[in-house]
Amino acid sequence: MKFRIDTFTLLLLGAIVLASFLPVTGSAADALATTGTIAVALLFFFHGAALSRQQIIDGATHWRLHILITSLTFVFFPLAVLPVNALSGIAPDWMPKDLGLGFLYLGVLPSAVSSSIAYTAMARGNVPAAICSAAASNVFGMMLTPFLLLLLVSTSGTGEFAVLEALKDIILQLLLPFAGGHALRPWLGGFLGRNEKLMARYDQCVIWIIVYSAFSHSVVSGLWQNLPVQAIVLAIVLCFGLLALFMLIARLMVRKLGFSLEDEAAVVFCGSKKSLASGLPMAKVLFSGHPGFGMIVLPIMCYNQIQVIVGAILAQRYRVKIEQASAAAHTTE
Hey, how many other C-beta atoms are within 10 angstroms of the C-beta on 183? Predict the structure, then answer.
């Protein structure tokens, strides 16, 4: 089976390389940061307009499955990254402070919507449940992520976190645009539904702007001088380990609770994935102006690329198993 790096991944890598050699500075950097802020607000406005209440209502009946996915995303994952962050106090050459904070941030992020649903569909899993859980995770994640991050930072002694300022920015830049977009859904929903590819391109453009702006700021602040090569290698290894751990935990818990194979696929993909699309815009709000921004978002960028590759392989395997189980069931009827 052949796998290739998708175009968007190459564009993100290109943004990092461009920022490393030609970082935006001065008034241009301020203008780009302002553009990013407006673009993020519009991003959540469009997501609010695109979200259907009926999708959540229809999927909410499978409450045991949703509780399991939510627990994996917002309880077990945050607990799992605490020891990772503790390395910043034990081996700062391997885990700089801002990189440790980045793993804490990775732990409290919501599930990825598009890839969770896409891989569940590819696997022939429970797609309605995946839609409901992934969408609900992102809606609640806008409120849960900053508070969980504050809790982890306080617990780990990482440092101060301006929760009131972050909460104000979350409300103004994320929640209000989201609510405004949802209120206008009767007028905008049809257009957005007919132009899903255009909206996906807009999402990618916003993420590219954030990555280029953030890494430019970090490079000017000495990112590559402060981030050792061994820290990058360790971050990649830890991202592989966290993904494997949560895919294994999801499978074990699903089988313990007696869910179907289709449900298992939904839980494995929704419960182990973390959202780059929500994570980077929220990071721009939560860590605005932070000199170590590039280091903070490095774990989610590494984790995202790993989950895309591993997810594609695993989805194909689930598809074969589910189709074989379905064929066997029809044969015995």
Answer: 12
Residue entry with tokens 């929500």 = 278
Cα dihedral 23, 275, 314, 267 in deg (nearest 10)? 170
For helices 276-286 and 293-332, give the axis angle rounded to 10 degrees.
160
Mean pLDDT of 243-257: 93
* CA distance to 30, 114, 194, 202, per residue, from 197 (Å): 30, 12, 9, 9
**What pTM does this model have?**
0.73
* pLDDT range class, residue 248, cuts 50, 70, 90: very high
Query: Which of the residue ranges 31-40, 82-91, 155-164, 215-224 would you say has the lowest mean pLDDT?
Result: 155-164
Q: The tokens of 114 are what?
A: 């598009």
Cα distances from 53 to residues 56, 172, 250, in angstroms, run 5, 22, 27
pLDDT at position 1 is: 45
User: Residue 333: which pLDDT band, with cuts at 50, 70 and 90?
Assistant: low
Mean predicted confidence (pLDDT) in 226-238: 87
Q: What's the CA gap between 266 and 249, in Å, rounded?
A: 13
Quote the CA–CA distance of 252 and 250 in Å, as a whole number.
Answer: 6
What is the model's pLDDT at position 239?
Answer: 95
Q: How many CA atoms lie within 13 A of 331 on its CB side?
A: 6
